[in-house]
Design brief:
- By secondary structure, the protein is of the alpha/beta class.
- About 55% of the residues lie in helices and about 20% in strands.
- It has six helices and five strands, in the order βαβααβαβαβα.
- It has helices spanning about 10-20, 35-45, 50, 70-75, 95-105, 115-145, and strands at about 1-5, 25-30, 55-60, 85-90, 110.
- The protein has a five-stranded parallel beta sheet with strand order 2-1-3-4-5, with helices on both faces.
- Strand 3, helix 4 and strand 4 form a beta-alpha-beta unit.
- The radius of gyration is 15 Å and the shape is globular.
- The N and C termini lie far apart (about 30 Å).
């Protein structure tokens, strides 16, 4: 399982990486900008779903260049990449920011600072929901063919 961390703070990025690694997530990639995240996501979109390997994106909202909300909006316009869960991690706690994050396509929203327990519970839940959704889609497609 691969997780992409999009965070411009080196300290927070390292902390998130350590939390996930200590929990057994071995394939964690970090980038510091929306543009770098989009490069990875576009590359993933160009591959078949089973070769992409990206299972989750943890994304800050305030980033240099393209912000996290715009990255998420662009993800929703892609094919299989649109199904990758995005959990927003931000210092902004205003309800309007949370609403905008969900409207952009985010699956979850956490206000920094975050605890390791909260992060890991939400990561696990998002990945489980995605697997369940993919299973239902495959089952529906098989019903249509049969």
């Amino acid at each position: 399982m691969s997780i992409l961390i999009v965070e411009d703070s080196e300290t927070i990025s390292s902390l998130l990486y350590m939390m996930l690694s200590n929990a057994g997530y071995e394939d964690v990639v970090t980038v510091a900008s929306g543009e770098d995240a989009l490069d990875i996501l576009v590359e993933c979109e160009m591959k078949p779903r089973h070769e992409c390997g990206l299972d989750l994106v943890l994304m800050d909202i305030v980033l240099p260049g393209i912000n996290g909300l715009d990255v998420c909006r662009q993800m929703t316009e892609m094919g299989h990449v649109a199904m990758i869960p995005v959990i927003f991690l931000t210092a902004q706690s205003e309800e309007s920011v949370m609403a905008e994050a969900f409207e952009a396509g985010g699956w979850d929203f956490m206000v920094k600072p975050i605890s390791s327990f909260d992060l890991l519970v939400r990561v696990k839940a998002a990945m489980r929901k995605r697997r369940d959704l993919e299973k239902r889609i495959v089952a529906m497609l098989q019903e249509e063919k049969g």
